[in-house]
Amino acid sequence: MNDRYQKIYNSIKKLDRNKEFLQNICNILKEKIKHFDWVGFYLIEEENKNILVLGPYKGEPTEHTRIEIGEGICGQAADQKETFEVPDVRKENNYLSCSPDVKSEIVVPIFKNYEVIGEIDIDSHEYDPFVEDDKKLLNKIAKLVSEYL
Ligand code: SME
């Protein structure tokens, strides 16, 4: 990762592991990375593991507070257990729109014991904005969060 992204990661690593941890991660990512216009967590529901529930986020409120596994980009990432990048949401049929401003999205699963327990979701107002360092950073953050949850 480049120096700037390494610094962002270091500042996230240093955060207190208190109940604000996930919210603070969202705040830092949204503030520091220009093409991250909405940053949030979805977490697998304890009682029904087929549902992703919206957790802390930074950005416009979304109506998609509960998403079924397989549904939308979030649900597909959880189903396939891998990062799901959509550079142009117009080209994705299985997509849940939050706002017409959103042009692209990336979802990175959070694993515990090889199971998906949640995910980091990023929306961008630009087409195809995500670079390799974004994926590296988000994967490293997913590991930190996995240790915390
Ligand atoms: N676009 C997502 C829904 C969640 S919002 O981006 C916050 C999807 O298709 O799963």
Automatic annotation (TrEMBL):
Domain GAF: from-to ranges: 20-146
UniProt xrefs under Gene3D superfamilies: 3.30.450.40
Lineage: superkingdom: Bacteria
SUPFAM superfamilies per UniProt: GAF domain-like
Pfam families hit by this protein: GAF_2
Protein name in UniProt: GAF domain-containing protein
Source species: Candidatus Mcinerneyibacterium aminivorans
